[in-house]
Design brief:
With about 375 residues, the chain is α/β, with parallel strands linked by helices. The chain folds into 2 domains: about 130 residues, Aspartate Aminotransferase, domain 1 (Alpha-Beta Complex), CATH 3.90.1150.10; about 240 residues, Aspartate Aminotransferase, domain 2. Helix content is about 40%, strand content about 15%. The relative contact order is 0.17.
Length: about 375
C-alpha cells in the first residue's frame, strides 16, 4: 500500500481504508457542526447548510438533483428501502424480476416479499458470470412491478449494462420500477440514470467511513413512493431519523477526492489486474472466475486444490489480506459461483482479490510470492 509498504490490503471490495483527509473533515464537522440540522436556531441553520452542500456534492457524482438524493447508513439500507418501498408503491401486480447474483441485501428482502405472495423470478447468470439479460427481459410483463439488478457484481466483478436493461424494461412496462445496486460501481465506472428509478451507493467502498451511504430516488417516483418505515420529516420524510451530518460531509469529501480520476484509476487498476493474471498463469490449477469485461478492481479465481480459508490464513501471516467471497457472507461459500454452476471444489477454493488506487505492483508481487509458497506447502484437498 502507498501509505504502508508492509501492508498488502487487497480486499477493497469488502471495505476501503478511510482516507486521512476524509477523516479530518469528519473530525472537524463533529466539533463545529454539532447542532441538529432540523433545529431553527443559528447553529442548526449552519448544520442544515452544511448538509445541503454535502447532498449537492454527492448528487453531482450521480448526475441527479439534490432533492433526489437521500442519505442512508449504507448500501444495504438503501437496497432495503428501495425494494420494500417499491413493493408498497406499485400495487397493480405482484411480479418481481431479479438477477441471480445479487448482494444479500437485495436477495433477502425479495425472499421476504416472495413469502408474502409476490412472484419473484430469479434469473441465474450465465456460466461465464455474465448477466442473462434476454431471460430477464422475457420475464417482464404487465404485472411486473419491480426489476432489480446490480451494476457491478461484488464477488467476480461482472459489469452489467443496467442502462440498457432499464431502457428495455421500460419499453415493456413503463410502470415497472427499476432498482440498481451500484455499491461496487460508484466512483469506478460512469453512471447514467436514464430509466433507472432507484439506486443505492455506499461510502465505505470509496474511502469514506462505514455507516453512511445514499439512495437515489427519481423525482418521477417520489410522490407515490411508500417508505417501509416511518418517523420524522428528515430526508423529506422518506428516511426518518436525525441525519448523520459529519458522515454525510465525509461522504462528500470522499467523492470530491475521487471526482475526475475515474479514467486514471481505471488504467492503474487494469495494470495491477494484468500483473496478477500474468502471475497466476504459471499455475495450471488456477481457473479465472471473473468474466471478460469485468471491472479491473476485482479478480476472482479458484486454485482448485487448497481450501480458501487455509490459503487466506496463510496469506494473512504476511499481512496480505484477500477474501474468498462477499464479506457480508461471513465465510459462507460464494452464492455467485454457485449460481454460475461452478463445481463445489471451485467454490471451496475461490479467492477474490480487489484493488484500489492505493495498491501498488509490490502488493501484487507480495501476494504472488506468498501464494506460490502456499501452493507448494499447504495441505491439498483430497479429490
Amino acid at each position: 500500500m502507498l501509505q504502508n509498504p508492509e501492508l498488502h490490503y487487497l480486499d477493497n471490495a469488502a471495505t476501503t481504508i478511510v482516507a486521512p483527509e476524509v477523516a479530518d473533515v469528519i473530525d472537524k464537522a463533529m466539533r463545529e457542526h454539532w447542532a441538529n440540522p432540523s433545529s431553527l436556531y443559528a447553529p442548526g441553520a449552519r448544520s442544515e447548510e452544511a448538509l445541503n452542500a454535502a447532498r449537492a456534492a454527492v448528487a453531482r457524482t450521480l448526475g441527479c438533483k439534490s432533492k433526489e438524493l437521500y442519505f442512508t447508513s449504507c448500501g444495504s439500507e438503501g437496497n432495503n428501502l428501495a425494494l420494500l418501498g417499491a413493493a408498497q408503491t406499485r400495487t397493480f401486480g405482484k411480479g418481481i424480476v431479479v438477477s441471480g447474483f445479487e448482494h444479500p441485501s437485495v436477495q433477502r428482502p425479495l425472499e421476504r416479499l416472495a413469502a408474502q405472495g409476490y412472484h419473484v423470478t430469479v434469473v441465474a447468470p450465465q456460466p461465464d458470470g455474465t448477466l442473462d439479460m434476454g431471460r430477464m427481459l422475457e420475464a417482464v410483463d404487465k404485472n411486473t412491478i419491480l426489476v432489480a439488478c446490480m451494476m457491478v457484481n461484488n464477488e467476480i466483478g461482472t459489469r452489467n449494462d443496467v442502462e440498457r436493461l432499464a431502457a428495455e424494461v421500460k419499453r415493456r412496462n413503463s410502470r415497472t420500477i427499476v432498482h440498481v445496486d451500484a455499491v461496487q460501481a460508484w466512483m469506478r465506472v460512469p453512471i447514467k440514470l436514464d430509466n433507472i428509478d432507484t439506486m443505492a451507493v455506499s461510502g465505505h467502498k470509496i474511502h469514506a467511513p462505514k455507516g453512511v451511504g445514499a439512495l437515489y430516488l427519481s423525482d418521477r417516483l417520489v410522490q407515490a413512493f411508500q417508505p417501509p418505515y416511518l418517523g420524522g420529516e428528515q430526508e423529506r420524510g422518506l428516511r426518518p431519523g436525525t441525519e448523520n451530518l459529519p458522515y454525510a460531509m465525509g461522504l462528500a469529501a470522499a467523492v470530491t477526492r475521487l471526482a475526475g480520476s475515474i479514467r486514471s484509476r481505471d488504467k492503474a487498476m487494469r495494470a495491477l489486474n494484468d500483473r496478477l493474471r500474468a502471475g497466476l498463469s504459471i499455475f495450471p490449477e488456477v481457473e479465472i472466475n471473473s468474466p471478460a469485461g469485468a471491472v479491473p478492481e476485482v479478480l476472482n479465481f479458484s486454485e482448485n486444490c487448497i481450501k480458501s480459508e487455509t490459503m487466506l490464513s496463510w496469506l494473512s501471516e504476511k499481512q496480505i489480506y484477500v477474501s474468498s467471497a462477499s464479506a457480508c457472507g461471513r465465510g459462507q461459500p460464494s452464492h455467485t459461483l454457485a449460481a454460475m454452476g461452478r463445481d463445489p471444489l471451485a467454490i471451496d477454493t475461490a479467492i477474490r482479490v480487489s484493488f484500489c488506487a492505493d495498491n501498488t505492483p509490490e502488493d501484487v508481487d507480495a501476494f504472488l510470492e506468498r501464494f506460490e509458497d502456499g501452493m507448494k506447502h499447504l495441505q491439498r484437498i483430497r479429490k
